[in-house]
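Lecture 7, part B: from sequences to assemblies.

Below are the input chains for today's worked example.
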Amino acid sequence: MTESGYFTDGNGIGGLLEEIFAAEPTGAQRICQSCRAQHPTGAHRAYTSAGVVLRCPSCGDVAIRVSQRSGRRLVEFRGTWIFDAPR
Amino acid sequence: MAPVSRGFRGRRRQGVDASRVPPGQYVVDDFPVLSAGPTPQTGLDDWTFTIGGSLDEERTWSWEQFVALPGETFTVDIHCVTKWSKLGTIWTGVSVDRLLEDVDTAAEFVSAFCDGGYTTNLPLEDVTDGQAWIAYAFDGEPLEAEHGGPARLLVPHLYLWKSAKWVRGLTLLDHDEPGFWETLGYHNRGDPWNEERYWSD
Amino acid sequence: MTLPRVPLVWRVGTVVAVRPEAARAKTIVVEVPDWPGHLAGQHVDVRLTAEDGYQAERSYSIASAPEDESLALTVERIDDGEVSLYLCDELRAGDELELRGPIGGYFTWQVADGGPLLLLAGGSGVVPLAAMLRHRTARGSRVDTRLLLSAGSWDDLLYRDELGRLGRDGVAVHYTLTRGAPPHWSGWSRRVDAEMLREVGPGPRTQPRVFVCGPTPLVEHVANLLVGLGHDPRLVKTERFGPTGG
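Predicted structure of the full complex, as structure tokens:
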């Protein structure tokens, strides 16, 4: 049985997605999912090994994980990110 | 294709035995420090190693008990997925075979867990038969914290992300549980000789 | 003011000059076609490619002011640093250099952001702060600005003469040398501590914009001291260069 159709897809919110991913990231604030502290992305701690891990500077919990190979990048976001509209 | 930088060669060592270098790797003489998070500072008084999960009875060793176990000093080549290889590294540690000696289990997989939250998964058959150790010394000296001390898992026939730093135990499982990097696109097994870096390799 | 949003792409620049800077650093001046401009504090990623395709990439802060004609990077020579050794010992005028940028919007300062301005750096951490000072000079700003530089020795200090002249522009420049001072040294000779920061000022009540840059351990140490002295953490911006700072 198919659902009633009360949803769109990535194409339908494409403009929103492009705005999110094109936003300058280092100034964007993030609220940590674990400790609720708020810090700009630029102040988060970055660790580079097999991939890159960005961590909350207050509690050390993971904010972003990135792995990449040629032509593909996998990104996991945790916590709440605040993006302000450009003026 | 990026332009070639005139005269740039990088820090790779030339003239090594190619048969010891898996595809896509280059040999280094230093020992790069790479990690997914801050270096844990677990004191030896608090350190324990536990084998748990799908087995008859959980086993735990304190640091004193652990280093009292018969250990081995061995020389292996290690290969990091970030493409550097280090040949002829000398370690001292306890073989995982010894730790599993009298363990009764039908498990086929292990998950290594560590201070700091890192995990990695392996088939049980990749950590037995003399293929894996819990290593606590490198080059005759106690393993430095930045390289995984007090103790790390060492599984040299697989990429080094499987050799979990700051390991605190192994959980035996009847199912495979992808770990920290495996859940982010890295290959589930990680055999450098088949260049198994990413999940679709 | 924000810069227009330009896609971050790799560009091939041509090295115009490689100049010695202090005992162990070089300033690289590079012409980059269609360079979109930058804000003081931003950096570029530099990528080197060997003939067999092997690549190495590092980030370097932009030393030049946004108002300057050419892009300049200052690179500290790290003894076993793969990229810095190449940039300092091999690279010469006429070579191509692949880079992308400008990167970073968090660690930036423009005159319009106001002051007072408190700049704290260890070693090559002074580079992005120098861009801020050069921008301040280019704009004729007289905002209250204080700079504290920590370095190993007198010979390690970057931009020594230029910073010395900034005193005339109303910039207070302080030094602390941690591995030995020259005779008749009137600056400090110890690790940065709370007492030193209190003397440099300004205090937190003036709500200075604070920028701390350099090796990670120093940045962590200084940032903690500043918060301990009462500075609002949201006004203390940090840029960590990693364990060695190179």
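Note for the exam: The CA atoms of residues 11 and 35 of chain C lie 9 Å apart. Keep this in mind when comparing with the next example.
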